[in-house]
Amino acid sequence: MTYKMIFFDVDGTLLNEEMLISESTKKALHTLHENGVETVIATGRSPFHVRELANELKIESFVCYNGAYVEYKGKVIFTNPISKQSLEYLTKQVENHNHALVFLSEDVCYASHDNEMVQSAIKSINYDPLEARPDFWRDNHIYQCWLHCREGEELVYEQDKLLGDVRFFRWHQVSLDVMPKGGSKALGIEALLSHAGIKKEESMAIGDGRNDIEMMNCVGMSVAMGNSHPDVIPHAQFVTKHVDEEGIAYALRKLNVIK
Q1: Phi/psi of residue 145, nearest 5 degrees
Q2: For residue range 135-175, what is the model confidence (pLDDT) as tens digits?
Q3: Which residues contact 181 (CB under 8 A, 6 or more apart)?
Q4: What percent of the chain has pLDDT over 70?
Q5: Less packed terminus of the chain by CB within 10 Å, N or C?
Q6: Domains of the chain (ranges plus CATH)?
Q7: Catalytic positions, please?
């Protein structure tokens, strides 16, 4: 099968635990570009947090915020922001429970207020300390929030019927993604494939995390990294080596995408 577009997760896939890209991955993507294969970053991260990586790898398109923001060759083609109604209610509830939020727009993010849990979570992904702007959500499209609370404390939000149009996904000991319900990397990928005129069968996705499961089910070939979460493996058609063992290059060679 000839693949025209390949989607790459970032953390644990393009980047290892030290936030480094292996030389084998750089060479593999260079070969893909030479062969006319389009490469896309598909991540839970923000657009402003992947642009430097994308520039280094000469990637022009992104599926960010787990599918809520899609950019194709510099043009925004799909967005799915959180509703203002949900943001207003969530903000009030977070204040009532002495938790904290981070609001993420297309190009910047701010905290609802300064909080030790906020700083702990953002430090783990190499973000600089965040400024507090509690009303930032009012005049900006917010594609994702981070809810900062300890494990188990999120139940008060997950069980709140007035928050029925958002869903929660824990990615850190003290932080969860808050996303539009029904949104996923798959939704963004389908929008991008349609816009680019590429069939599902002509696409591939490579990832390692639980938020990659939906992505793997919407492409022609799904690849799980050797370091993947156990829940991911059953959804992959091919399991490659660990990110530190040239997993991307190995998969692309074994699947006859590059030589």
Answers
A1: -120, 160
A2: 999 999 999 999 999 999 999 999 999 999 999 988 889 99
A3: 164, 165, 166, 167
A4: 100
A5: C
A6: 5-79+183-254 (3.40.50.1000), 84-180 (3.30.1240.10)
A7: 9
